[in-house]
Amino acid sequence: MAAAAAPRGWQRGEPRALSRAVKLLQRLEEQCRDPRMVTGPPSLRDLLPRTAQLLGEVAKARREAREDPEGPGGADDFLAIYLANLEVKGRQVAELLPPRGKKDVNQDVFREGSRFRRQLAKLALIFSHMHAELSALFPAGKYCGHLYQLTKGSAHIFWRQNCGVRCVLPWAEFQSLLCACHPVEPGPTMQALRSTLDLTCNGHVSVFEFDVFTRLFQPWPTLLRNWQLLAVNHPGYMAFLTYDEVQTRLQAYRDKPGSYIFRPSCTRLGQWAIGYVSSDGSILQTIPLNKPLLQVLLKGQKDGIFLFPDGKKHNPDLTELCRVEPYQRIQVSEDSDSQTCPFCRCEIKGREAVSICQAQERPTEVRTAADGSRDNCHQEAAEQKLGPVIPSAPSLLPEDQFPQGPQDKGWLTLAPLALPRLRPPLPLPKMASVLWEVTSRPRAREEATESS
Q1: For 22-38, how does the pLDDT look when each residue is reduced to its tens digit (9 = 90+)?
Q2: What pTM value is reported for the model?
Q3: How many domains does the chain have?
Q4: Given 194, 223, 349, 441, which residue has the most CB atoms within 10 angstroms?
Q5: Would you state the pLDDT for residue 92?
Q6: Same domain (yes/no): 188, 313
Q7: Which long-range contacts (CB under 8 A, 24 or more apart) does 347-356 make?
Q8: Is residue 57 part of a domain?
């Protein structure tokens, strides 16, 4: 029996591309051995060997692959885009770092606050994003992009309905798909959206990058409005900033407690990291868990913690993002065929038929009269001697609204009439008026006493 064909990309020179990428990372790792290199996260000295090891695992898994069912936008296309981008970014890092054996060259890259240092920090962030993306789509080297589950249910539905099993799309195609659901004005706003979404700066959007974006700027119905208020218009937002750079930037506001900035976390993609100046002048950084950023900022503003974004006096009003619009409410109908819970997104284990109708509350006067008949002993004795009473006004309430247990002697027996059931808002005669009229008239009680 003939062996199954290898993946399409493997036949087109993918092994050589993977081998070149691994060798490039190894050369960069040697250049990063200078002790003056930044060791804080993200650290190139840690990322480069880990990425090289993961690419080796990918090469092994691709070599042993029996089939390639992904098609366009699958593993082949992703790796071709990824490896080309890795080569470009690797050469940029190599140009910034001192060549091997020439430590006196490019000294500005080690100077705090220099332009070259900032460029190297941004490239380190991009390498961090690329490693996280490759780990998510190729865990242990095996491709699973077609099975990737986005965190937010609405985002997952959008991707699978519009992109199918593809894990990566060109920016132009993704832009048209997203704008059909969330319109965006062309021009600078569209460019800003692209720079926020394209974490690896390769001109494409992967399912992993879209997952990170939708987690940062949840909820889905106001996704791009949240992005505009939090990322485009908010002075406290900082893109491509590291932990050390946040510490450096807030040093200028040590004498202004309440100053803060926020950025996407590089160690926990999809979550926010907030740096702020505390009341004693110290600089702290925190990652709020399981809460949208706008709720954290509003609570921090109320508590006096987040008052001055990037040291500025004006703190943007984010309350409009907390207003629940009608289209944001979850609606459940018998036509819903989703296999996940609309609240927790867990798999639905079973189904039960439920009928929902408006409850008809028992009139207050009826409950009051019934309670009074138990509490008043003299009134109970009088009603017992009166016997059954047929009210002058018919009762239009269904029989199942009366107590079903054994009747006390103080309860009045009402003779039901065969009348059609009516529903509010039609005016209904009050039965309580009959009870009150019988039990409260002095003449009735006197006649009952004389007859005994």
Answers
A1: 999 999 999 888 877 76
A2: 0.69
A3: 4
A4: 223
A5: 94
A6: no
A7: none
A8: yes
Tokens of 147: 């099975």
Which residues, at least 6 apart from 226, have a Cβ–Cβ distance to it below 8 Å?
217, 218, 219, 294, 321
Neighbouring residues of 52: CB distance < 8 A, sequence distance ≥ 6:
21, 22, 25, 26, 29
pLDDT tens, position by position, 267-311: 899 999 999 999 999 999 999 987 889 899 999 999 999 999 999
How far is residue 126 CA from its own chain's centroid?
Answer: 24
Question: pLDDT grade, residue 114 (50/70/90)?
Answer: confident
**Residue 356 included in any domain:** no
Does residue 180 share a domain with residue 114? Answer: no
Residues 39, 113 within the same domain: yes
Same domain, 93 and 60: yes
Tell whether 173 and 238 lie within a shared domain: no
Which tokens hold the place of 60? 């092994």
- Residue 120: inside a domain, yes or no? yes
pLDDT band at 129 (very low <50, low <70, confident <90, very high): very high
φ and ψ at residue 168, rounded to 5 degrees = -150, 140
Q: Which residue has the tokens 């619009």?
A: 325
Domain range enclosing 280: 234-322
- Domain with residue 198: its CATH number is 1.10.238.10
**pLDDT, mean over the chain:** 78
Q: Give the residue carrying structure tokens 């974006």.
A: 213
Cβ neighbours of residue 67 closer than 8 Å, sequence gap 6 or more: 4, 5, 7
The answer, yes or no, to whether residue 154 has pLDDT greater than 60, is yes
